[in-house]
Design brief:
Number of helices: 9
Shape: elongated
Number of domains: 4
Largest sheet: 2 strands, antiparallel
Strand content: under 5%
Order of helices and strands: HEEHHHHHEEHHH
Strand order of the largest sheet: 1-2
Radius of gyration: 39 Å
Distance between the termini: 142 Å
């Protein structure tokens, strides 16, 4: 630690005096569960003093000294750098990898690398491990599947034809199942129900055509019967005249 940094750090610690950090969220004040253990002296926390000192030095134009990655983080940094080399310089995944590498190089740990909890829904992901599990599930190496198919919508990979056909469909008229939303699915259900009940538009058209054909056939039969009756009456009248 440089002499200038040490002086700034000591001055900050002295100025803070009895200032405390609250470890609970602001809304906890209204619950009435706040206690002494929920507060800690800022001057007693090396991490907080370093953070404030870095901010003060950056504000003064004196950049904080570079932090060497810890031995614990270095293997993960090397792995992320190797993975990063497989991707283009642009793209969301590449940006995420860069952010993770930067955070780990600053010894922020895996939680800091994925911006937990600042950018996460802590109700759905109450712990850093839960958030990391989601990240690991979403990240799939493109080299893991030698033969198969990978969906570019959801990144799921398939190694057998049956599973791939179930996900992608068997023709170009079908959409991948991961892109079918609830409204479209319900609409398909209703169409299937109407078809099974023979009440679809097609069935109604068929029934209409059958009814029309039956009506026209009956009318033609009645016309034929009328003509035959008229002819019979004409013959009978001729015989009587003769």
């Amino acid at each position: 630690m440089s002499e200038n940094r040490t002086k700034i750090r000591d001055a900050i610690a002295e100025s803070l005096g009895g200032a405390y950090d609250c470890l609970r969220v602001w809304s906890a004040w209204g619950v009435g569960t706040m206690g002494p253990d929920d507060f800690t002296l800022v001057a007693d926390s090396d991490e907080r003093l370093d953070e404030i000192t870095d901010a003060a030095m950056l504000a003064m134009g004196d950049a904080a000294p570079a932090v060497e990655p810890s031995a614990e983080n270095q293997p993960l940094i090397d792995l992320l750098r190797e993975t990063r080399a497989w991707f283009d310089t642009r793209g969301t995944l590449a940006a995420r990898l860069d952010a993770m590498i930067e955070a780990l190089e600053g010894n922020g740990g895996e939680a800091a690398a994925i911006h937990y909890p600042q950018c996460w829904d802590t109700t759905a992901y109450p712990t850093a491990q839960a958030a990391l599990s989601e990240v690991y599930a979403a990240f799939k190496c493109t080299q893991c599947v030698v033969h198969g198919w990978r969906c570019f919508h959801c990144s799921e990979a398939f190694t057998d034809t049956e599973s791939a056909a179930l996900h992608f469909g068997k023709s170009e008229r079908q959409n991948p199942i991961c892109t079918v939303d609830a409204a479209e699915y319900r609409a398909m259900e209703q169409r299937m129900i109407r078809y099974n009940e023979e009440d679809s538009d097609m069935h109604r058209q068929i029934y209409g055509m059958q009814a029309k054909h039956a009506t026209e056939l009956r009318r033609e039969e009645e016309k034929g019967y009328a003509r035959g009756l008229a002819d019979g009456q004409a013959v009978a009248a001729g015989d009587m005249t003769a």
